[in-house]
Amino acid sequence: GVDNFLAWFMMSKGFELFEATIGSLILLVEIIFGVILALIFFKEIPTMMTIAGGLLIFLSSAVVILKSKSK
Prior knowledge:
Blueprint: H1 2-17, H2 20-42, H3 48-69
Helix pairs in contact: 2-3
C-alpha cells in the first residue's frame, strides 16, 4: 500500500543523490539490520554463516565507499 510506495519513492530519490554503486550497497546493508533487529526483538540467534555473510557485505560496502571517496 502506501508504505510500499513511500519506500520505493524514497529509494528512487536516494539513487538521484548517490551513485548507483553506493546506493545498491546501502540496500544490501538492510539485510544486516534485519538480522540485528531479529536478534533484538525475537531473540533469534544468527548462525555462523549468517554472521560471515554479514561481515562480507559490510566489508565490501566499506571497500567500495572508501575507493569512491579516494577518487
